[in-house]
Amino acid sequence: CLSLSSVGCGGGGVNVPEGPMPQGGTFSGVWHSPQYGEMHMVQTGQQVIGEYTKDERSGRIQGTVRGNVMRFEWSEQREMVSGVAQTTRGR
C-alpha cells in the first residue's frame, strides 16, 4: 500500500505511519483523480515531482519519500476570470 500524506489549510496535522515500500514500488507514473485529472509524477531517489492540468487548473507537488509515504508541498493556479490567476498552496 502506498500513501500520499497531505495536510490542508486548517493547520492540523496528519500522522501517517511509514512502512516499507513494496518490492518494485514507486510513486512514478500517471495518477488519476476525478477532481484534478491526470497527475504525472516522477520519483528520482527519494524526491518526487508531479504536475497536472485540468480545466482552469494547473498544479505541482514536490515531495520526499520515506518508506511507503510521500510528504509533499502542493501549489495550484486557477484562472477563474480571463487573465486573473489565483494561487493556492498547501502541505
Key features of this structure:
91 residues; mainly beta; seven-stranded mixed β-sheet; 0% helix
The topology string of helices and strands comes to EEEEEEE
Termini separation: 21 Å
**Which class best fits the helix and strand makeup?**
mainly beta
Query: Which percent bin holds the helix content?
Result: under 10%
pLDDT < 50 stretches = none
Query: How many separate helices?
Result: 0
What profile does the largest beta sheet have? 7 strands, mixed
Any overview of this molecule?
The model has no long low-confidence stretch (mean pLDDT 84). The protein has a domain of 60 residues. The protein has 91 residues and is mainly β. Strands 1, 2, 3, 4, 5, 6 and 7 form a seven-stranded mixed β-sheet that branches. The protein is elongated, with a radius of gyration of 14 Å. It has no helices and seven strands.
Detail the topology: elements first, then pairings:
Elements: E1 3-5, E2 29-33, E3 37-44, E4 47-54, E5 57-66, E6 69-81, E7 84-90
Parallel strand pairs: 1-6
Antiparallel strand pairs: 2-3, 3-4, 4-5, 5-6, 6-7
Give a brief rundown of this model:
By secondary structure, this protein is an all-beta fold. It is 0% helix and 59% strand. The model has no long low-confidence stretch (mean pLDDT 84).
